Amino acid sequence: MTDVLLAVGTRKGLFLARRRGSAGGTAGEWEFDGPHFAAQAVYSVGIDPRPGGTPRLLVGGDSSHWGPSVFHSDDLGATWREPERPAVRFPEDTGASLERVWQLQPAGPAEPGVVYAGTEPAALFRSEDGGETFGLVRPLWEHPTRDRWAPGGGGEAVHTVLTDPRDPRAVTVAVSAAGVFRSLDGGSSWAPSNTGISAVFLPDPYPEFGQCVHKIARDAADPDRLYLQNHWGVYRSDDAGARWTPIGGSLPSDFGFPVVAHPRRGGVAYVFPLNADADRVPAGRRCRVYRTEDAGESWEPLGAGLPEAAHYGPVLRDALWTDGADPAGLYFGNRNGELYASADEGESWRQLAAHFPDVLCVRAAVIG
């Protein structure tokens, strides 16, 4: 039996759900509560596991009145704590102020207590106390290419942070719209890592940096294999991001926002294609998740239980996720306020909620 926590960040608060077990491959019932942080936009959620204990929940809230903040809970959302001073704030000498926390990413078991925050303006922050206080990673903020970074449609932000399970000093980030940057020394230095990724909107379609990368995911079996959803283009890297190869040829469209890797099976990843950058609805007006089981050589649509009628709900970059269970559960929410779940790795789906506010992010984890 598997106990799963599901966190759904929306334009108007955070919803939490618990599935208190499943047996024989049949999903148990879900219990929802919320919204927490009513009227706040929740763009980021992190679930930080604690060995032998309850995970810490981290939430990036954005109040139109009070501004952005980071909250945490050690009792699965029963109570929340906000630091007396802002957890994420820019030093005065930067001349910048926090607009939004786009990503809250625990570093993993190799660095317990370390949490990264990706923000707008585009910056990376690091916490060593479980997300209660963060410090600016200055070498990325002061990167010599920074004055030539340009905002994407959603702003200029660090929206993806990946740590290498073999080496906590190896960190990969994606910046909208500057592309992929890698550090091999714990953030002391950074290098663009975009070879092979196109930027169709620039005079040079293959620049050193300036790509509008939407999301990156790491393969479960091969840590050097990464999957990337670009603003036009789905890519794979087999050398930790040094070079990228297109793998979206059999998709109905290679434009989209999220990409998620299976938590255990190598070569397995999921995307949600959209028609085009100028027509951001599901590809062919079909609500379908696409899966590859051969590292992008081929893709198949997964639609059992999803709407059959014409559909218009796009899925944002952090609104498709997996829970790590066996079999893996998959979840996505869309801008129509619909929430869907699969308990069998995408083979079949059911709708968990409708009429939610605009879904901005989804996170899930096994907690029991």
How does this structure look, described?
- This protein is mainly beta and 368 residues long.
- Helix content is 1%, strand content 43%.
- The chain has one helix at residues 138-141; strands at residues 3-10, 13-20, 30-36, 41-48, 56-63, 67-73, 100-106, 115-120, 123-127, 135-136, 157-164, 167-176, 179-183, 191-192, 213-218, 226-230, 234-237, 245-246, 255-261, 269-276, 279-282, 289-292, 300-302, 320-322, 330-333, 339-342, 350-353, 359-366.
- The longest helix has 4 residues, at 138-141.
- The N and C termini lie close together (9 Å).
- The relative contact order is 0.13.
Give the strand tally: 28
What is the radius of gyration computed over CA atoms, rounded to a whole number of angstroms?
A: 19 Å
* Shape designation: globular
Proportion in β-strands: 35-45%
Uncertain regions spanning at least 5 consecutive residues: none
Structural class category: mainly beta
- Strand and helix order: EEEEEEEEEEHEEEEEEEEEEEEEEEEEE
The N- to C-terminal Cα distance equals: 9 Å
The residue-averaged pLDDT reads 95
Which range best describes the helical content: under 10%, 10-25%, 25-40%, 40-55%, 55-70% or over 70%?
under 10%
Number of alpha- plus pi-helical segments: 1
The major beta sheet can be summarized as: 5 strands, antiparallel
Short key terms for the protein model shown above:
368 residues; mainly beta; five-stranded antiparallel beta sheet; four-stranded antiparallel beta sheet; 1 helix; 1% helix
Topology:
Elements: E1 3-10, E2 13-20, E3 30-36, E4 41-48, E5 56-63, E6 67-73, E7 100-106, E8 115-120, E9 123-127, E10 135-136, H1 138-141, E11 157-164, E12 167-176, E13 179-183, E14 191-192, E15 213-218, E16 226-230, E17 234-237, E18 245-246, E19 255-261, E20 269-276, E21 279-282, E22 289-292, E23 300-302, E24 320-322, E25 330-333, E26 339-342, E27 350-353, E28 359-366
Antiparallel strand pairs: 1-2, 1-28, 2-3, 4-5, 5-6, 7-8, 8-9, 9-10, 11-12, 12-13, 13-14, 15-16, 16-17, 17-18, 19-20, 20-21, 20-22, 22-23, 24-25, 25-26, 26-27
